[in-house]
Structure formats: C-alpha cells, structure tokens
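Structure in, sequence out. Go:
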C-alpha cells in the first residue's frame, strides 16, 4: 500500500492520502485518545505514536496533528508501521456507535428551507476544498444571522483557518444567502 503525505496549511498537521476508501462518504474527528476509545481501533493505535495529539479520518485520507514540541520525522517513523499493520489486519476504521449529534444552535426557530440552503452550500462548495487541506467543516447552527461551524482535522487550530472562515466561507454564504450576516467557528 502506498501512502502519499501532503503538507496542510496547519504546520502541526499532515495529510496522509491512502488511495483507498477509509470511511465511505464520511469523516470522524478524534481530538483526544478518549474520543477514539471504543469508536476507532485505527485512531486509538495512532494515538499510541509519541507526539500524536489528534487524529482525523476522512473518506480516503487521515490527518495527524502532532504536539508542538514533536518532530515530524519521529512521528512519521512511528506512524508507518502502525498504518501498515492496521491495514493488513482488515479491521474497520470505525466500530461502535456514532456519537450523539450535537444539538444545532437555533434549530427550534429556524426556517428549514433556509437551513437546507446553507447546508447545501457548505457541503458542495466548502467541504471539498477543506478536505483537500486535510480537514472538514460541519454546520452546527444558524441563529440571528450567524452561521456556526465546527472546524475539524488540519483546520482545527490552523493559523489560516480564521482567514478562510471569514474571507472565504462568510463571504460566499453572505453572497448566496442574504439572511447570513456572519460566520463563527465553535
């Protein structure tokens, strides 16, 4: 199996392109080892590598975020045998139940058609671009003109994510949906 490594805008995150489907049509974010337990044997094993601080599983890639003090050469050296052994095992990347969805902000007062339009724009125009950088972005709500989004993977904690969110995502949503006045990250 050939795994291609790609830099991301976040200097503490690298994207590992697998060349095969890992999670069909989805993603899973593991910001801590506790979130990986009983949900992802792959993420749990990746956390055993010294220096790994977060794991994000995309549809056909993995994004690893390292601790600030960790060296990428050391982290990569530890990841290679873990990934090789895992994929040879044939185990699924995810097991168990999906975590309970977070309650959407403003879900009880929003116009369903407006929310559907916002979600469609995010899914079709934003998420593919963010995935190219090793991350994901999820809709978390809309209230009083503000769209709330959660950044995951390489995008979480990335120095350029605030600029992307404000100049890119906010501008696009305000253009297509006049009711949107701002975008905020959770």
């Amino acid at each position: 199996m050939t795994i291609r490594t790609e830099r991301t805008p976040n200097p503490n995150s690298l994207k590992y392109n697998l060349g095969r489907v890992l999670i069909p049509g989805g993603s899973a974010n593991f910001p801590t080892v506790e979130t990986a337990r009983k949900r992802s044997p792959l993420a749990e094993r990746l956390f055993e590598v010294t220096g790994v601080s977060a794991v994000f599983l995309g549809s056909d890639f993995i994004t690893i975020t390292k601790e600030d003090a960790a060296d990428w050469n050391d982290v990569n050296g530890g990841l290679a045998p873990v990934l090789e052994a895992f994929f040879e095992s044939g185990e699924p990347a995810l097991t168990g139940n999906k975590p309970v969805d977070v309650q959407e902000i403003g879900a009880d007062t929003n116009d369903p058609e407006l929310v559907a339009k916002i979600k469609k724009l995010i899914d079709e125009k934003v998420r593919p671009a963010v995935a190219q950088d090793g991350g994901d972005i999820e809709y978390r709500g809309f209230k009083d003109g503000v769209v709330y989004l959660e950044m995951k993977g390489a995008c979480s904690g990335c120095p350029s994510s605030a600029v992307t969110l404000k100049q890119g995502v906010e501008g696009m949503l305000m253009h297509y949906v006049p009711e949107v006045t701002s975008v905020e990250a959770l």
